[in-house]
Design brief:
- With about 250 residues, the protein is of the alpha/beta class.
- It folds into two domains: about 1-105, Rossmann fold, CATH 3.40.50; about 115-245, Rossmann fold, CATH 3.40.50.
- Helices cover about 50% and strands about 10% of the residues.
- The chain has twelve helices and eight strands.
- The strands form two sheets. It has a four-stranded parallel β-sheet. It has a four-stranded parallel β-sheet with strand order 6-5-7-8, sandwiched between helices.
- The chain is globular, with a radius of gyration of 18 Å.
- The N and C termini lie far apart (about 35 Å).
């Protein structure tokens, strides 16, 4: 199976450990991929709100570089690319690449290959990314999202539920005081959940919650790679979390 890998801007610039984890996962489950040279930012939300035409033209350029199903590692990238491609398809009557978010991709692959792992003891609170669920993009149930939780269970981890689980982290809120207040409120709920770490599939959620949460904030790719035998240090998994898995 061949795919086009679109890591997005934040993963490449801020989270090399997530990039490494993605490469580990794809290699271990036998996915051939290419990263198109010259691909640009997908301009999630920000540019769209200023100039829909510029946002659309930017992603039309990206579309021409993609030769196969696009795997995104950030759900904002998924939302921006898939929304733009849908408009371009209807506007120009052309066939466009399918765009697949990392969580859905992992669930499909684990089920397809019948893979299940047996890590024990690590309790994970999921930060669901808003732009995967709202508006609905036929990926998960917006009222009761289970894709990431199901992946975690198959990887051997324990997903935990908590108050305000569906609330936004505030990562793309423009006004600073409001953004910080939303983040602190979300971090408090996560810390009261009894979880050992926070897991997300959105790099904006990672950046926002890392700035305020006392819990480790991880991308699903990191825990996926860990379950598959990757070197913990190379994918940014701390010794503290490892000890929790050995001694639940």
């Amino acid at each position: 199976m061949s795919m086009t890998l679109y890591l997005g801007c934040l993963i490449r610039t801020l989270y090399p450990e997530v990039e490494k984890a993605v490469y580990e996962v794809l290699g271990r489950i036998g996915v051939v991929f290419e990263e198109p040279k010259g691909a640009s930012c997908c301009a999630p939300l920000g540019l769209f709100s200023l100039s829909k035409n510029a946002w659309l033209r930017l992603n039309e350029r990206n579309m021409r570089l993609f030769q196969s199903t696009v795997l995104t590692v950030c759900d904002d990238c998924f939302a921006s690319l898939s929304d733009a491609f849908k408009i371009l398809s209807e506007k120009n009557n052309v066939r466009v690449p399918e765009v697949k978010p990392f969580g859905k991709f992992m669930l499909e692959k684990l089920e397809e290959k019948g893979l299940r792992f047996s890590f024990k003891g690590l309790r994970c609170a999921v930060q669901h990314s808003c732009h995967l669920l709202r508006p609905a993009r036929n990926v998960d149930n917006a009222e009761n999202p289970m894709v990431v939780k199901n992946v975690l269970e198959k990887l051997g981890y324990i997903p935990v539920s908590y108050v305000s689980e569906l609330d936004c982290c505030g990562g793309l809120v423009f006004e600073e005081k409001m953004r910080n207040a939303i983040a602190r409120r979300k971090a408090e709920a996560l810390e009261k959940s009894g979880a050992d770490c926070v897991v997300t599939t959105c790099s904006h959620c990672m950046r926002q919650l890392k700035s305020v949460s006392r819990l480790p904030v991880l991308h699903l790719a990191q825990l996926s790679a860990l379950s598959m035998g990757a070197n913990p240090e190379e994918i940014g998994i701390s010794e503290i979390l490892l000890r929790r898995m050995v001694n639940p």
